[in-house]
Amino acid sequence: MLAVGIVTEIFGPHGTALPGFDFALCTERPGPVATDLGIPLTITHGLDRLARADLVIALPWADFRTPPAPAVLDALVAAHQRGALLAAHCVGTFALAAAGLLDGRRATTHWRFADLLARRHPHVTVEPDALYIDEGSLVTGAGAAAGFDLCLHLLRREHGAAMANAVARDVVLPSHRDGGQAQYLAAPAPQDGQDERLADVLAWARANLHEPLPVTELARRAVMSKRSFARRFTAATGTTPHAWLRDLRLSSAEELLETTDLPIEEIARRVGYGSAAVLREQFVRRRGVPPRSYRRSFTTTP
Q: How many other CB atoms are found less than 10 A from the CB of residue 246?
């Protein structure tokens, strides 16, 4: 039910301010479907609904150790062959793997079942620590709440940062976590005054993104040594200060490219890059296209 709630929350209606999706739940046999909460869901759509879907997300199911019925596997393969984007949340990855769609590709799933996935499907390169892995037409994600990261990544990739950020704000979520970020942390960060200082520093960094923001300055504002700050930051966020700033700068640049007609040089300045050339280098390396091409694809200005 958590997975159903996640995809419904992200792809369901968000009021008139945001465009809606033609969203549907489907199953092999329409009718009541048991859930882990003991409350059945009545699903009205069968597998024929996959034949016209642009995006198909395989959700986790209790009996994932047993391969889905041949009709389900055939429907997934047919959707992929006609060009649909296929994704999987948590142990939903086992369905895509059973269909043979992940052979020769990288994939992830809930960390608890990553070893099982690797043993069952030796032709799949399983990366147990990733939040999600994008292999083009096939995207797999980790378990539980990481489904939000997967869905927001799909929104960002297909419809741009502005829409993903708007939906994230609507459901009160961080707008972006990099797919390579760790699924879980070995120990939670202690809830004390240092955590509050860290939150204040992150808010200050967001408001001053045009500045260089070296780690030494962030640590000074948190009243910590550089080493202690880096350790506390990673414990609290699952990523390094450098990676967090890089993703924040690129995400902010994406939204400015989509929603404004500012020159590339001005966008580079606003998000903290020394020049348009540096922004372009980072954009091509991390997003696969230069900023001007991204703007043409996702711009929402007249």
A: 16
CA distance 285 to 52: 33
Summary mean pLDDT of the chain: 88
> Other C-beta atoms within 10 Å of 137: how many?
13
Angle subtended at Cα 288 by Cα 285 and Cα 294, rounded to the nearest 5 degrees = 120
Given a cut of 50, whether residue 191 has pLDDT beyond it is: no
- pLDDT tens-digit readout, 247-278: 889 989 988 998 899 999 999 999 999 899 99
Packing angle of the helix pair 146-159, 161-170 (nearest 10 deg) = 140
